[in-house]
Design goal:
Blueprint: E1 6-8, E2 33-35, E3 48-54, E4 63-68, E5 73-77, E6 87-88, E7 101-103, E8 112-114, E9 116-117, E10 124-126, E11 134-140, E12 143-147, E13 153-157, E14 161-164, H1 180-185, E15 241-243
Antiparallel strand pairs: 1-2, 3-4, 3-6, 4-5, 7-14, 8-11, 8-14, 9-10, 11-12, 12-13, 13-15
Amino acid sequence: MEKRLTWTLPKRSGRNATGVVTTRHQGAREKRRYREIDWKRNKRGISARVVAIEYDPNRTADLVLVQYVDGERRYILAPETLRVGQKIVSGESAPLTAGNALPLKAIPVGTMIHCLELAVGQGAKLVRGAGGAAVIQGFEGEWALVKLPSGEIRRIGSGAYATIGQVGNPDWKNINLGKAGRKRHMGIRPTVRGTAQNPRSHPHGGGEGRSGEGMHPKTPWGKSARGNRTRNKSKYSHKMIVQRRK
């Protein structure tokens, strides 16, 4: 771990600035240090060597520690095929090899990418989880059509940067945690079924014996839990979506 690129991650335990729980089932995790990651890849045309591949407790993907020729060290997400000792570079003329960052307009159709910017210069926002990869489907004027891991096809400015390859650690989803204690170390508290609660705590609660809900599934706040669409139909970026996820 490169200490200069880390700091202590404060515990929030699912609470906001006023101390109110806004995200349930969080708390009492182990101490962690946050690793500062280079999402922008803005050292254009300067090559870097992979020094180490490291575990990150704050995300599902692994990290790569790279050292540039000028001596600076940075963290990036680890692509699946990148190994210690290999070289990476960012820029419009970079080779199409795993770990290199290029603008979408310089990447051929059908190429797998990750760490994708939504707006030019903003830094990577999309496809950052373990095993994730998006695919460029084509180009439409100044827009690139990108198929995201969810199946959604979206327009993104062709000047936005993305990293070649698939995010590493694809077997993350197959890990069996093995015991409740490991879940607690991760900061995830137990979840109680709605039917086991009283009616003041959950819409499914109450009733004599083990009664079913007797109603459509609901969240604790009374919203439908049947998977109804919740996206705002007048959202500013709605026109960027060519095909919604299935």
